[in-house]
Amino acid sequence: MTHRSDRLIDVRALARVEGEGAMHVRVRDGAVAGVRLEIYEPPRFFEAFLRGRRHTEPPDITARICGICPVAYQMSACAAIEDACGVTVPPSLADLRRLLYCGEWIESHTLHIYLLHAPDFLGYPSALDLAKDRRDLVERGLTLKKTGNDLIEVVGGRAIHPVNVRVGGFHRVPAPADLAPLRERLRVALDQALETVRWVAGFDFPDFRHEHEMLALTEPGRYAIESGTVATTGGLGFGVREFEDHVIEEHVPHSTALHAHLAGRGRYLTGPAARYTLNHRWLSPLAREVAAEAGLGAECLNPYRSIIVRAVETVYAVEEAIRLIDCYEPPSEAAVPVPPRAGTGRGATEAPRGTLFHRYELDAAGLVTSARIVPPTSQNQAAVEDDLGRFVAGRLDLPDDRLTAECEQAIRNYDPCISCATHFLDLRVDRG
Amino acid sequence: MITLAVWKFASCDGCQLSLLDCEDELLAVAGQVRIAHFLEASREVLPGPYDVSLVEGSITTAADAERIRAIRDASRVLVTLGACANAGGIQALRNSADVAEYASAVYARPDYLDTLATSTPIAAHVDVDYELHGCPIDKGQLLETITALLAGRKPNLPAHSVCFDCKRRNNVCVVVAHGEPCLGPVTRAGCGAICPAFGRGCFGCFGPAETPNGPAEADLLRAHGMSGDDIRRLYRTFTVSAFAEVAGDAS
């Protein structure tokens, strides 16, 4: 047993991820003996205190699980409550929800590409350091991100924790004149998003291929965002109401996040690469064209290339927002009534980092008696740990500081949202 | 150049994200301060002491109670960000519940968890110099505070109620015009009165204003159709501990 063959790589506080987590890699006799993503974000017990709340409250309350993707929480919560109450919102309100969600995809993807992930590929500790050399690049990202945030503000009232969403629709719907200035900015944003795809496509991507089953919502005719049924790359297909028959969560000792796997099948991956692989034919012609130009094929199996998928999805979200604004006619009612009834409702939507499932049980008075939330990061945790084990195994000759930096970059491929997953990361490589 | 550190405790990351959401000002701010610790934005971590620490989140573990003391000791000025840091956040709903029952409701193995029975504000543990309110904070107030600290003056932060901002914004009063129950009369301004602007009653995410009239607010809410349970739920959301006194019997 040599000194080099046994070691511990330990990232105690992962940077440029959302929330708090750590990673521990144990190496014994020159082989990876174990990888753990530790989610030490303290538990906040949302599913517990949702009990006893009115059926109208989960959209505002669950938004507070994540400051980066509050719209995703609001949309999945609305879908689940409306399912419990037997209400379907009219297409005009569903379209307005999709428009709001496009704002969040633009904001969250751009945050991840420019501020969290790109500095790794370019060798900077942060985007602020990158800006000292390439201010133009960072300014482009910030402008694009701002357009996404401003879209959320106009439709949702506030960029973080929007106030305008309610079960059944919205408190107030925008006037066409409110959306017109956004349309002009989205035209500029489309060019910036296309430039972003070409920029990230030129990064140096380590050779890596995963073999996980991938899962995403899918919807014939359009790229699934706020609705759809569940599909996997292994050929599984089921409705959102059957989600819990197929997705099993377990509690592992090192994490306040729960690990999910597919019943009888094992670990899986959700998020941009899964969506692209399952649904790329439903992207817009321009998004498909720029994806092909960036070298994305029929599937995306290299987690590093997920940054290209995020950029392509940003192009799509900008185009889709323009399309929705162009065909916008204010709905006749800002919301449809959602009278409570006893029952169980389930909802799932595509958060920027993957499928987000909610289930609520209501009593006859409309009070929540039970709540369950399955966020993307807990679904991805087992797959991420497996990938990291294989990734480290190929790089054991690297010194600790370099290996640690590369592991952090690898983790960011999955855009883990640790705040969400609490129920995530510190990297530690234990070499004995 | 002052050194700035950003710290996170139990929270959603939204308040510190507000700094990255200052898209027009972020690079200018970064040019004026040395960012010494901001894990959401940078993997570079510099040792203290720090001139200004921005603290997000509430204290829910014994280790975090220790960590905030070390941060206070290393910080010249400590500013808390948002409802979690100032009032314990929505996770403070556990304070009046059985946290063991909460843990067993969410987790298969509560014994794997390490958590306190309470979620408490930063000020319950260490001295706080300035508080930015809101769930999330307002980025205008964040920029005002950073600008003031750079200039060596006190930040100008309002303590009046949302009602004043509604008047300033020319919002139609949702209570008078639409009969919507609204916490605006007892809630601290700072958000720009956005909920009333969107036709809904304020739900108090900035916590109580300086001199709230709790009994009068209770009468107003009851007069607009809210039951005692509904009033109790409304106050017991994002700043439950801060509103306890205003809510009175309703809490």
Describe it.
The complex is a heterodimer of chains A (432) and B (251). Helices cover 44% and strands 19% of the residues of chain A. Chain A is α+β, with helices and mostly antiparallel strands. Chain A has one domain (7-206, 327-430): Cytochrome-c3 Hydrogenase, chain B. In chain A, strands 1, 2, 3 and 15 form a four-stranded mixed β-sheet that branches. In chain A, helix 4 (91-122) runs antiparallel to helix 13 and helix 12 (376-393) runs antiparallel to helix 13. The radius of gyration of chain A is 21 Å and the shape is globular. The relative contact order of chain A is 0.23. The model of chain A is unreliable at 422-428 (pLDDT under 50). Chain B has two domains: 2-151, 3-Layer(aba) Sandwich (Rossmann fold); 162-250, no CATH class. Chain B is 36% helix and 12% strand. Chain B has a five-stranded parallel β-sheet with strand order 2-1-3-4-5, with helices on both faces. Chain B is globular and about 55 Å long. Chain B starts with a strand and ends with a helix. At the A-B interface, helix 1, helix 5 and helix 6 of A face helix 1, helix 2, helix 5 and helix 9 of B. Chain B: This is Coenzyme F420-reducing hydrogenase, gamma subunit. Chain B: Keywords: Oxidoreductase. Chain B: GO terms for molecular function: iron-sulfur cluster binding; oxidoreductase activity. Chain B: Residues 12-149 form the NADH:ubiquinone oxidoreductase-like 20kDa subunit domain.
